[in-house]
Specification:
Rossmann fold; alpha/beta; 5-stranded parallel beta sheet; single chain; 43% helix; disordered C terminus; 15 helices; 6-stranded mixed beta sheet; 11 strands; globular; 367 residues
């Protein structure tokens, strides 16, 4: 007997942030590890779809009479909670898990909240079919806005497009392609701090490494007007950027909006790259270890020094690539991630099932 997993689906869910969740569930279902059903909320369950950034799973263990309700909060902001869902669920997994904000909750709610881990924007053929089956008709009726949402999901790279073995060939180069934000796109005062920090890193890397640095600022109107010399000449289209990014030895990571953990970090892990990073603020179920999974930096000069260290030390670089590949396979790859979620929520899947599924993850598994 296998667990039954109902994903409580709504057409207004944020398909982009939830895409790797959909992909992981689909992978497990096609592998025979779970019985999966995407279903609409029933009349008495409408609170479960009241927040577009929170996805609910109802999981029934074989032999259990009562399903467990697992909520997965994908908000960038650590201080925002889907309170109506949090009150009902058995376990509440939060992408942006920051202890200070958890401690502000009443004790009976705070004890339900756990870190979710790293997600990123990807899909499988099966997850795309499920999205279209359950959402296409309603979204097409909404006209151009709905059609754009479907297209935006359809052009996401597949999970396998990000993946690369740690022994795969990479060039001794550094990638960092990022964007700057308008003031109305961020919290008050946040855009200037984020933009200036990212621009300083781009400038330092360009100066220190010349053609060995690949990237710069995504060519938005703000970047072109304010920082024209730092604008990237490399592709920003998702599929082309993904292919370009994984060819480099080192990926640079800076903190996302609202102190969230940006998708760059799991994308670099999937490609088994070395990582030079501002230390992520939010907690993960299994921490990334400085010196093992990434070299930390707090200034543009420290970023350059860390890159020079990795370029000069092949053994260190090879060890980091192996460590990041292992972390991806067990904690980030969509099906392994969902296995861990189910395992940590009171052992919904038996340990043997989780371990077997995780062992199959990676480049050997393809659509």
């Amino acid at each position: 007997m296998k667990p039954n997993v109902d994903l409580v689906f709504d057409v207004d869910q944020d398909f982009y942030h939830a895409s790797s969740l959909y992909a992981g569930l689909d992978m497990l279902a096609r592998r025979g590890a779970i019985e999966l059903n995407f279903r609409r909320a029933e009349r008495l369950e409408l609170d479960l779809t009241s927040d577009s950034d929170t996805v609910c799973l109802q999981v029934r263990n074989p032999g259990s009479n009562r399903p467990m309700l697992i909520a997965i909060d994908l908000h960038d902001q650590s201080h925002i909670f889907a309170t109506a869902i949090l009150k009902q669920c058995d376990s509440y997994l939060k992408r942006s898990f920051h202890e200070r904000d958890i401690n502000e909750l009443p004790g009976e709610l705070a004890c339900k909240v756990r870190p979710f881990g790293l997600n990123y924007a990807c899909r499988t053929t099966g997850s795309t079919i499920r999205i279209f089956r359950h959402a296409a008709f309603c979204l097409v009726l909404r006209g151009l806005t709905g059609i754009r949402r479907l297209r935006h999901h359809l052009v996401l790279p597949r999970a396998a497009d990000f993946e690369q073995l740690p022994t795969g060939f990479v060039e001794p180069t550094i990638v960092f392609q990022t964007r700057v934000w308008e003031a109305n796109e961020t919290a008050p005062g946040e855009s200037d701090a984020i933009n200036e920090g990212r621009v300083a890193v781009v400038r330092a890397l360009k100066e220190a490494f010349g053609e060995r640095f690949r990237g710069g600022l995504v060519p938005t109107s703000l970047a072109l007007a304010r920082y024209p010399r730092e604008v990237s000449a490399f592709p920003s289209r998702r599929s082309l950027y993904t292919a370009m990014s994984k060819r480099n030895l080192i990926g640079i990571y800076t903190q996302g909006l609202h102190c969230s953990t940006a998708f760059k970090l799991p994308e670099y892990l999937a490609a088994s790259l070395c990582i030079v990073a501002e230390t992520p603020r939010n907690l993960l179920p299994v921490p990334l270890v400085p010196g093992r999974h990434f070299l930390p930096f707090r200034s543009a000069q420290e970023c350059v020094a860390a890159c020079q260290r990795l370029l000069a030390n092949r053994e260190l670089a090879a060890e980091m690539r192996r460590a990041n590949h292992d972390y991806y396979r067990t904690e980030v790859e969509p099906s392994a991630h969902i296995c861990r979620v189910l395992e940590r929520c009171r052992g919904i899947l038996c340990h043997e099932t989780v371990s077997a599924a995780a062992s199959e993850v990676g480049p050997a598994f393809r659509e």
